[in-house]
Amino acid sequence: MKIIGFGETVLDIIFRNDQPQKAVPGGSTFNAMISLGRMGAPCVMITETGDDHVGDIVCDFLKDNKINTDYVYRHVGTKSHLSLAFLDSNNDAQYQFYKDHWNIAMPQKMPQIDKGDIVIYGSFYCVNPKIREFSKRFLEKAHEQGAFLYYDINFRASHKSEIPDIIGNIKENMRFASVVRGSNEDFELLFGAKTCDEAYNIVKVYCPYFIYTNADKPVELRTPDLQASFPVKMIETVSTIGAGDNFNAGFCYAIYKEGIASLETIKKEEELVAFSRFIASGQKFSSVVCQSLDNYVPKDFRP
Question: For residues 11 and 50, is the Cβ–Cβ distance under 8 A?
Answer without folding.
Answer: no
